[in-house]
Design a protein that fits this description.
Shape: rod-shaped
Low-confidence stretches: none
Strand order of the largest sheet: 1-2-3-4
Helix content: 40-55%
C-alpha cells in the first residue's frame, strides 16, 4: 500500500490563501455596504412618499372646506372683498403639522349669468427639517 505523504507547496504558492481570503472579505464587505445604502435610499423614498401624500391630502382638504363654505354657507374667500386667502391649520393625527392656504380668484361670468371662480389650495407640511408643498386648483361656479 502506498503511504500518503504531505503535500508540498511551491514557495510561490505560500500565502495565496490569505490573499484570497482578504479579497473575498473586501468584496463581501463592499456588497454589504451597497445593500445598506440601497436600503437607506428606499426607506427615505417611502417616508417622502408618505409625507407627500399627507401634504396632498391637506391641499385637498383645504379645497373641500372652501367649496363647502362656498355652497353651503355662502362664505369663504370668494365672498370677501379683495378675495383674501383662507388659511386652515390642521391638527390631530392625520394632518398635524400641515397648513392649507386657499385663494379664490374670479374668472368670469357664463352666458347664464353664473359667476365662475378658481380656487387654488397651497398646502405646506413640515416634518422636522423637511418641508413639502402641494398645489391643487379647481374651478367652481355660483348657484345663482
Amino acid at each position: 500500500m502506498t503511504s500518503l505523504s504531505p503535500i508540498r507547496l511551491n514557495n510561490s504558492q505560500r500565502g495565496s490563501a490569505l490573499i484570497l481570503t482578504i479579497f473575498v472579505l473586501i468584496v463581501v464587505g463592499f456588497i454589504a455596504l451597497m445593500a445598506t445604502k440601497n436600503q437607506q435610499k428606499m426607506s427615505t423614498h417611502v417616508v417622502t412618499s408618505i409625507m407627500g401624500t399627507r401634504t396632498n391630502m391637506a391641499a385637498q382638504s383645504g379645497t373641500q372646506i372652501e367649496i363647502s363654505r362656498f355652497y353651503m354657507e355662502k362664505t369663504g374667500s370668494c365672498f370677501v372683498a379683495g378675495n383674501p386667502p383662507s388659511v386652515y391649520t390642521f391638527s390631530g393625527d392625520g394632518l398635524s403639522q400641515c397648513e392649507a392656504q386657499v385663494k379664490c380668484k374670479p374668472i368670469g361670468t357664463l352666458d347664464s349669468g353664473r359667476k365662475v371662480y378658481s380656487l387654488t389650495s397651497t398646502a405646506t407640511c413640515k416634518f422636522g427639517t423637511t418641508t413639502l408643498q402641494r398645489i391643487i386648483e379647481v374651478g367652481i361656479r355660483s348657484d345663482d
